[in-house]
Design a protein that fits this description.
By secondary structure, this protein is an alpha+beta fold. Helix content is about 25%, strand content about 40%. The chain has 2 domains: about 1-225, P-loop containing nucleotide triphosphate hydrolases (Rossmann fold), CATH 3.40.50; about 235-240 and about 275-359, RNA polymerase II/Efflux pump adaptor protein, barrel-sandwich hybrid domain (OB fold (Dihydrolipoamide Acetyltransferase, E2P)). The strands form 4 sheets. A 6-stranded mixed sheet has the order 7-8-9-3-10-11, with helices on both faces. A 5-stranded antiparallel sheet has the order 2-1-4-5-6, covered by helices on one side.
Amino acid sequence: MIEADFTLSLPGFELEARLELPIHGVTALFGPSGSGKSTLLRCLAGLSRPQRGRLVVNGEVWQDEGCFLPPHKRPVGMVFQDAALFPHLNVRQNLDYGAGRAKRGGKTKNVPKADDLIDLLGIGHLLDRRTGMLSGGEKQRVAIARALFSSPELLLLDEPLAALDGARKGELLLYLDQLHRQLDIPVVYVSHAPEEVARLADHIVQLKEGRVQNFGPVMGIFPYLQQPQTHEEGVFTLLAGTIELHDSNDHLTQVSVGEHRLWVRYIDRPVGSPMRLRLLARDVSLSLDPGARESSILNTLRAEVAGVEETAPGRALVRLALRDGPELLSRITTRSARNLKLEIGQTIYAQIKGVAPLE
């Protein structure tokens, strides 16, 4: 476990956080700007020194009363919003610096195989380039590689996608997901974007005004993350399932979510693999008719109405309770909600126009 207990007072802000984080997987620190995410991350790295603090990582005390391990002695790899690469060095030399830091610290147990890591992050063709010649996504991949070359016992990522455009974000998310699957190093990841958390996180710490609001496994905490954003078009449901079968004729994959089955576009992973799905609320329509066979929609789920909320003029967000599953969100017009005469506990059929696998 990672045991953290910090109190830090700054002008106009105070952080009070007590946590026990898992030593495996990705823990996301989630919250709006100013909630204390980056401040908490800096406390873990030793870059901020709280007035009161205790930090124990896998049984090793890094900070306690009368004890403070300085940042350069903590086996931590850290990546900031801007990659902070050395501009006078090329990519290979930046990586060599990370490897040299591991040797100077006497840490060898987490040193990755250089070629494997370079291949995993897709930076082999960049090794002789100056960092000023790299795109934003390439810089972040190199920064992550340099951090891992330092043999960290803990990898800290402070909104590494914040400065990237949509295409570059998707590209780097793919690499981060591969790292997550293949490297056994705990990661603490700062983000204010639900889609990043849905894709990467195993556990979530939700922060607000310097306090921990929620903490737990991603599937249990995620429904609470979007409550302040329910008026936004991008609100969605996160589902965790397992690949059930592949239909090679129609190039489709069936994913089981509890007792439910959903068809998605073909996913090149073995049957039995875990899979997360994103269902945008605007892509879930509602019907009182369980039939509707003459339709292009492949996925219809039986549910019960759990709540109806007007989130904007003329727009309603309907919460649906699935048997043996999480709540499903549907965004419809208030006129449609009125025509359907929606009531709590009413049986309804959710017709899902789009299901996006989070690969």
